[in-house]
């Protein structure tokens, strides 16, 4: 069938370019679980560098939207050519919900939510997350423990209730099942290795 012979609503979805959505906690508040081994300035610097890395990888792959209440993070996003959204409802899930609402109004394009603390992330990881198998509308990149969600692909912005927080991998799977959506869990090192606790810090050496 010719492209222009498709129903109009399908055409819009087929044209819609995916967006990578990066939530960023204020740099000075992030990485609080490293407080026992790094002072405030070092944690802030680390959070800033991790975000810069994720942003650079994401920009190679798709349009990017950053949601944050940190003006520096928003400025860094704009300087890299990304869209920036000031968070009005503080918190991981509320900020993402705000961003998804905006994306849903812009276009019903696929969204890939990616954590800003993935030191081994590369563009291939992101491309893999943006290529779901037929019939799959939700893809979850689990953390190494299989408990958290480090990246979440959504076929469109309003498809799933967000459940970031402890046990989010299982919670996102449950939400997908409840909504009758095809769902896959992906395990790739670049997506799985986040940097949360002191035991994760040796990852940085492998990037040195
Ligand atoms: N916009 C926004 N992003 C958040 C918020 N809280 C967490 N995030 C982001 O969500 C992703 C996962 O966060 P966490 O792994 O909990 O990282 P963190 O909050 O820096 O680490 P801890 O302070 O140790 O909990 C990262 O991209 C964070 O920047 C928030 O309140 N607002
Ligand atoms: O799974 C999640 O909700 C996020 O990745 C945050 O989880 P974490 O606090 O274990 O990093």
Automatic annotation (TrEMBL):
Protein's UniProt keywords contain GTP-binding: yes
E.C. number: 2.7.7.106
Keywords, ordered alphabetically: GTP-binding, Nucleotide-binding, Nucleotidyltransferase, Transferase
Catalytic reaction equation(s): (2R)-3-phosphoglycerate + GTP + H(+) = 3-[(R)-glyceryl]-diphospho-5'-guanosine + diphosphate
One GO term of the biological process aspect: F420-0 metabolic process
Residue stretches spanning the membrane: none
Pfam families: CofC
GO terms for MF: GTP binding; phospholactate guanylyltransferase activity
Annotated pathway: Cofactor biosynthesis; coenzyme F420 biosynthesis
Family: Belongs to the CofC family.
Protein name as annotated: 3-phospho-D-glycerate guanylyltransferase
Species: Novosphingobium sediminicola
């Amino acid at each position: 069938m010719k492209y222009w012979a498709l129903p109009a609503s399908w055409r819009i979805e087929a044209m819609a370019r995916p967006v990578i959505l990066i939530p960023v906690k204020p740099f000075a508040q992030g990485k609080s679980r490293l407080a026992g081994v790094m002072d405030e300035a070092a944690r802030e610097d680390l959070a800033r560098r991790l975000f810069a890395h994720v942003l650079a990888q994401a920009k190679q792959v798709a349009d990017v939207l950053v949601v944050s209440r940190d003006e520096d993070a928003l400025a860094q996003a704009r300087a890299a050519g990304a869209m920036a959204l000031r968070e009005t409802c503080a918190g991981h899930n509320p900020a993402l919900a705000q961003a998804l609402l905006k994306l849903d109004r812009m276009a019903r394009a696929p969204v890939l939510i990616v954590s800003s603390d993935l030191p081994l992330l590369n563009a291939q990881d992101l491309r893999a997350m943006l290529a779901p198998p037929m019939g799959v509308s939700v893809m979850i990149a689990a953390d190494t423990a299989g408990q958290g969600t480090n990246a979440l692909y959504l076929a469109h912005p309003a498809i799933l209730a967000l459940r970031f927080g402890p046990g989010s991998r299982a919670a996102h799977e449950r939400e997908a099942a409840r909504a009758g959506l095809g769902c896959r869990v992906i395990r790739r090192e670049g997506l799985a290795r986040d940097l949360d606790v002191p035991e994760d810090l040796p990852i940085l050496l492998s990037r040195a």
